[in-house]
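Bug #77: duplicate submission created two jobs. Keeping one. Sequence:
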Amino acid sequence: MTTLNKEWEEYRAARNNLVTYNADTNCIDIDTGINGYTYSVDASDLDDSTDALEWVRHLCEKKWMTTQKIKFFIEKISEIKHSE
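Kept job's structure:
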């Protein structure tokens, strides 16, 4: 495996551990890193880019939020919306 492929696999593993989509609940779940607590965002609240930006603004106010988690959250929104 090339270095680039290895880095990509590590990136995807980190992303999949921190931000996931639960199709059963239609929620994007974000690992807060606090005692196993997960913060859930209902994907039906993400109808357009304005909604997504409002959620990003809201999440940025959380003390447990990181830029990496925000990036993964945005990527997850894109994945969900492009699969519909």
